[in-house]
Amino acid sequence: MPPKLRTLLVVLVGGAAVAAVADRIVSTPGLFSPRDFIEYWAAGRVNLRGGNPYDPRQVLAEQQSVEPHRDGALMMWNPPPALAVYMPLGAVPAKWAALLWCVAQFGAVMGACALLWREYAPGRPWRAPAAALPFVGTWWVVTYGQNTGFMLLGLAGFLHFVRRDRPLAAGACAALTALKPHLLAAFGVLLIADALSRRGRRALAAGTGAVAAALVVALVPNPDVLEQFVTAARNPRPETIPLSGYALPVPAYWLRVWLARESFWVQFVPCAVACAALLARRLRQGAAWDWGHELPLVVAVSVLTTPYGGWIFDLPVLLVPVAWALARLVRTGRRTGAVVFVAGQAVITVMTFATPGALHAYWWVAPAALALCLLPYWPAHVRRMSPH
C-alpha cells in the first residue's frame, strides 16, 4: 500500500473512532454540562435565526429546549461582536457544542502557555504545562464553559507576534480580548496609546478591523443587534439581573458597597485610576516600552481593578504573570522556588474545589495566585536585607 494511502486510511479510521467515542460521550444521560456554556449557545442560536440574543424570553426558550426544568434565562452580556464566536455553536446540538467548546478552551489555554513559555523561557517548551495544569483558572474555565481561554490566547498571540515585529497579526490576536473588554481595560488603553508608533497604529488598525468584521458577522442575520444590546444594558427586563445587581469578588465592588451602594459608576473608579497610572508609565517610557516585560504587570493590574467580572473562571488571563514568574524561577535555576510556586498554585486550585460556595466568595483567589508571582523577587530581597 502506498504511504500516502496508508496515512489517509489511518486518519480516516482514527477520525471515525474519535467521532464514535465522542458521540457516545455526548449521548450519555446525565452528562456533565458546563454551567455557563448554555448562555453562549442560546445567544448564538437566537442571533443566528435573527432573534434578539439579549431578550430573556427568547434566550430562555432555547435554554429550556436543553434544560426543560430551567425557570430563568442565563443571560449573555458580552458585546455583539462576540456573537461571531457563539453563532457557530448555535448551529450545533447543545451537547456536541459544549464538548467542542470545552476542548477548544482547554486547548487555547495550553497553546497560550506554550507561546508564553517560548517568550519567557526559550528552549524549555516542554515545561509549559507546569504553569497551566496546576493553575486554578485552567480548570474553572472548563468547568463553567466560559470564554476566557480565548482571551488568554489573544494575549499570548499578541506578545508572540509583537516580539517578531508582525503588528498586524499581533493586533488581530489582541481583538480576542474584546470578548470581555472590561476585564482587560488597561490593556486596551495601552493598545490605543501604542498608536504613537507606526507599528502600534498597524496593530490597532488590525485589532479594530477584526472586531469590526466580527460585528458585521453578527449583524448579517440580525441587523438590530447593536440597538438590542444597548437597550438591554440600559433597561434590563424585570426577569433579568442587571449588571449592577451582581455581587462581585473584586475590590471595585466592595468599594461601591462601602461608599455608595446605589452608584454603579463607583465600581469604575479603581479601573480609571489604574488605566491612568499605566498610561503615564507608558508615555514616560516612550520607545523603551517593552510589551514582554510589561504585559504581566498590565494583566495583573487590569484584573485586580476590573469594574465588573473578575470571577474565578475569568482568571485564565492571569496565566500571563503566572507563566512569567515560573519561567523566571526556572531560567535562573531556583528549583526550590519553582517547586514551591507550582505547589502553591495547585493548593489554591484544590481549595477552590474543596470549598464550594457563591462565586463572589472567591475574592481571595486572584490575590493569592498573584502573591506567589512575587517569589522571583524574594531571594534578592532577602540578600539585600542580610547584615552580611
From TrEMBL:
Extract the Pfam families matched here: GT87
Signal peptide segment? 1-22
Alphabetized InterPro entries for the sequence? GT87
Query: Among the entry's GO cellular component annotations, what is one?
Result: plasma membrane
GO MF terms listed in the record are: hexosyltransferase activity
Keyword line: Cell membrane, Membrane, Signal, Transferase, Transmembrane, Transmembrane helix
Q: Which domain of life is it from?
A: Bacteria
Q: Where in the cell is it found?
A: Cell membrane
Any transmembrane segments, and where? 96-117, 138-162, 168-191, 203-220, 311-330, 337-355, 361-378
Topology in the lipid bilayer: Multi-pass membrane protein
The record's comment on protein family reads:
Belongs to the glycosyltransferase 87 family.
Name of the protein in its database record: DUF2029 domain-containing protein
User: What is the protein's species of origin?
Assistant: Gemmata obscuriglobus
Task: Give the classification, highest ranks.
Answer: Bacteria, Pseudomonadati, Planctomycetota, Planctomycetia, Gemmatales
